[in-house]
## 1
Amino acid sequence: MATRWGICSAGKISHDFTVALRTLPHDDHQIVAVAARNLQHAQEFAKKHNIPRVYGSYEELAKDSDIDVVYVGTIHSHHLSTGKLFLTSHKNVLIEKPLAMNLREVLELTNTAKENDVFLMEAIWTRFFPVSVEVGRLLGQGEVGEVQMVRADLGAPLTHIPRLTHRELGGGALLDLGIYCLQFVFMVFNGERPESIQAMGYCIDTGVDGTVVLVLKFSGNRMAVCTCSITMMLTNDAVITGTKGTIKVPNHMWCPTSLEVNGEVTQYPLPEPSLPLNFIHSTGLRYEAEEVRQCLLKELKESSGMPWSHSHLLAEVMDEARRQVGVTYNQDSIQ
């Protein structure tokens, strides 16, 4: 039986996610409804993607009983309220990253999922790319020996995009880009909490972080360095250094299609999209969608590939990094 998807929000990332779903077998994944706060936007989205049911409010989508899981593609600052709406309506939910604005909100979402006995996953799509799966396999078999250092960089000049620069929209380099670097580190170190966190950076004139450098120290003198920026182009790669060699994601580390292991490069091409995409490599969103389907078929409430504990750790470390750099959101003052 197909997994029946509802799409919450008719924005750019929801478009790309819908296109990615179309690359999967129709017998496995079907998009049955879309909702937007503007009915006309939802209708235009439905027409473009041939989606049968259209709603002009998220509440209507939450009441639709013929949906197995909802994809939430709203802006960062709306993740908590929108996520809770669907979770309390006993819907399984996949929420775009970051799961919420801070650790308090993340815990509220995972607790709500637990209370309502439904599935919840933060949409860290990178975790489910074939490249990431191969990295996990290589580390598991000790391909590069004991890991000593992880480095991950992600940055581009993006200050022309309002949602990335406005505090009230959850802007800033950490929440949008740094999360990809940190999730890579925590994937390599199996969700271990660092012993120390040191963050340095600066804020742009809107009060959000423009560039942040994070240095994490783990047990056994293992280190990680993450750099993220919305003000400059970085190398956008990731490197794992071990006692017996290196594993490198040479580019597009957040949506990787190539992997270099001790100098040998392997390509992992993505399927072609049926419609133009808003973001690079977005057909790779198919992998997280399939992960959700497999979890639902097994009646799991969280994914082992992106468990709640990792979402908690990501939020905790980003909260501390923001504190050190001096970035606060309105949500931080709510107890």
Note: The longest strand covers residues 209-218.
## 2
Amino acid sequence: MDIGKALPASKEGESQMIVMMGNNLYLTSITLNGEPSIEQIDKLTCLDEQAKISQVFDCEGLLLCILKEDSRFVVLNPYLGQTRWIEPRYSHRPYGCDRFSYALGYVNKESCRSYKLLRFIDYFYNVPEKQFFWYEIYDFDSDLWTTLDISPHWRIAFCNPGVSLKGNTYFCAAERNVDVKEVLANSLICFDFTSERFGPLLPLPFSGGYHDYTTLSCVREEKLALLLQHDESNPYELDLWITTKIETEEVLWSKFVRVATAGFDSYVPFIGGSFFIDEEKKVAIGFDDGDNRHKINIIGEAGYFRALDLVGDFGDQECKTDLCSYVPSLVEIKQPEGGEREQESELEKLRYDENMSRLVLLEGNQ
């Protein structure tokens, strides 16, 4: 399906989601009324057929796509058929692995939204001289990258993607001086795209350990959902919370679902990567975290579990899988203005040169 072609309206009891599989994106519907079912609507053909998508991030209907074999990024609006390509200032993929974290957000202005892209790399070690971090932001209006003057007191694992909510992005994080072997993430932190700053570390509603898997999701662009899957400290349990209040510097949580997976007869269902929830049905939906990565798990209370096969041609199912709920957007993607491009400041050139020198040294020591 070419982007820009009218997307089919959701039916009663049906939700739409974007599925990433085989390095491509697919618009997919899932129905939870009665016996759950899932169906591929169509493939989103927005890029050259050779382009392979390795990561996708949703920001209220706009999708930020990170490519596997191309250093550029692309932001697309499937509903309006608009794309914008973004060129990074440098690439860093040791052993072919993308070590960056990404986030797409916006600043509310009087007549429109001003979009920005956050990209950062953060190597946190117990030895201070080995630490390296570089936080930078791309402004859609100026078409420029800027290094952020940040000294993080937090750490965000690159395997913990952020979630966009009301223009800002929230990450699971931890205090920087806490041993990563003890805690991977036990706090929440918000990046505010208006101030271009991170807020304080906010409490999660539990005390998670290194072997506990936490991930975030957005609920109807109004609140956050938090998924905790216990591994060792409390084996085979899955908890879900949703926020009752969420701001840059304050968060309140309410328990949504607790699933005692020990009650399952044989197979213990887990969710890997992103997920989303259905508040009415009280279920979490996401890809299986085991050998059945092509299956969608639906997990709820009282031992409720369904594993749905993806029906249709989803390409190479051995590639990384991911999904996000999808609601079409009427927001237009601003394109770069013609004419002479705004120039970087001398301070920014200096910061860039210093960080590149340190990054080259870091790569040489790996």
Note: Helices lie at 346-365.
## 3
Amino acid sequence: MASDDAAATTTARSESGTADAGGRMSSEDAVAARPLLSPPSPSPSAAAPARESIEELDRRYAPYARRDAYGPMGLGPIGAAEAARLAFAAAVLVPLRVVAGVLVLAAYYLVCRVCTLRVEEERDGGGEGDGYARLEGWRREVVVRCGRALARAMMFVFGFYWIREYDCLSLQTEDEHVDQSKELERPGAIVSNHVSYVDILYHMSASFPSFVAKRESKTSDFKGVSEGTTTNGDYLLPFKTGAFLAKAPVQPVILRYPYKRFNPAWESMSGARHIFLLLCQFVNYLEVIHLPVYYPSEQEKDDPKLYANNVRKLMAVEGNLILSDLGLAEKRVYHAALNGNCLPRALHQKDD
């Protein structure tokens, strides 16, 4: 087939060259040579791009496709029973949860306010002053403990009454050669898949870390949670290398949100609509899988990308997740297509 195509191309070029040698056809001759009732074919550059269907978009951007009862962007058709359930929840459940959520936020604001009353004066009175006040001693202890408790209270407001947590012990027997010095070394970061803003509430309630999202860390002295763009919960996107530059062990954590009607994953709908639908669910579920601490090899310490990829592959296997190389740029293209906007193909690139 390849040789036939080449021959056809050569023949076409030779005929074109003969026509040029014998003189160009006039515009009238070109029109007359066309079959009757056949309009001139538009040039490829002038042809408008065909709009992809929702099914085609969902296949192309599978990590961001919503497959629950509410459909793409949460605007899909729902049955009469689901509509009645939403109406009841919107009238009764949502107002109660909104009030409870405001009270939780107000309580934490008061805690932070009290614990930082004199911190600014102490900093201005001779501190180094690096742009913010550092909490130490009892102040930090109160903020952290209250933060963890109130973060869990906020999850309760959202309907996450029970959180099932599992420790994956199947991998611990494979690395029996790990010495005691490594076992005493604490992980420098928690590496987790990113599914929803609820992830942040869980990590705050569990360990109250700092967060690193959608960027490469320029320093290697932080301890926090490595995140990225949210997915529908079935896929695992590439990790940024910021959490792996410190060459320290990491704690892999896998988050799952089992659902029946509404998927708590935040991937293709507006934040306000997602929060509303989440508050309308009587019960939401969260499962957490804690993998053993991952100790990098010398080769992984020298190559943060290799370190990140190996941890990602391990999490995909243990969490039954699908690896995907899509990123934030593709997610924006998908959102624009769902909203009826046409974006150039050049936007199909990674957003570093």
Note: The first helix runs from residue 2 to 22.
